[in-house]
Specification:
Helix content is about 80%, strand content about 0%. About 5% of the residues have low confidence.
Length: about 200
């Protein structure tokens, strides 16, 4: 089983630590609200993603891919939310405006967002397709449990790093000019993530 776990851990790390909708939102949350208030968002991501992993391991991911209309709906939901988030990020350019105007994403909202997050679907479907066959010597329920636990154990600290990075950046963004520059950068990255859904 070790020969399956090491590649799985590597895939989980690379896919979880690289930029995507979750990590961009967590950086923004860390800046606006600090790390502690962003924790429900962090935990909601990992929980929701864990559920998505389990569903894809059971074969739901293949069903979703086989239904083009459902794929389009998921893409549209993810794109709409990211564009809404980009619109909200414009307030970051004004010191204090973000904190007054918004609240951290809740555990439940972060968990549900995973089902509209195209990167999460790609990670879950690709991971299940690549690594579930390597765990075939285990009973099916145990293979799925191992797959989900290993992936989530690596995903949680990876996404936490992005919230922590935002919290660290928070103290350096007191100057209005730097705050505006960073807000513009985050808006561009968020809009790019929304558009990249359709690529």
């Amino acid at each position: 089983m070790i020969e399956a776990l090491l590649p799985l851990m590597s895939f989980a790390f690379v896919s979880s630590i690289t930029p995507g909708p979750n990590n961009i939102m967590l950086t923004s949350s860390g800046i606006w609200f600090g790390f502690r208030r962003s924790l429900p968002h962090v935990l909601g991501i990992t929980f929701g993603f864990g559920v998505l992993l389990a569903l894809c391991a059971f074969g739901i991911g293949e069903l979703v891919v086989a239904l083009p209309q459902l794929v389009i709906i998921l893409k549209a939901l993810g794109c709409a939310y990211l564009l809404y988030l980009a619109w909200q990020l414009r307030r970051m350019g004004v010191a204090g405006a973000g904190e007054r105007a918004a609240r951290p994403m809740s555990f439940a909202a972060a968990a549900v967002f995973q089902f509209a997050n195209p990167k999460a679907w790609v990670m879950a479907i690709t991971g299940a397709s690549a690594f579930m066959p390597l765990l075939h010597k285990q009973p099916a329920w145990l293979a799925i449990l191992i797959y989900c636990l290993v992936f989530c154990a690596i995903n949680l600290p990876c996404v936490s790093v992005w919230a922590g990075a935002g919290a660290i950046l928070r103290r350096y963004l007191e100057r209005p000019l730097w705050r505006m520059v960073f807000a513009a950068t985050m808006i561009v990255l968020t809009v790019y993530s929304a558009l990249a859904i359709w690529f």
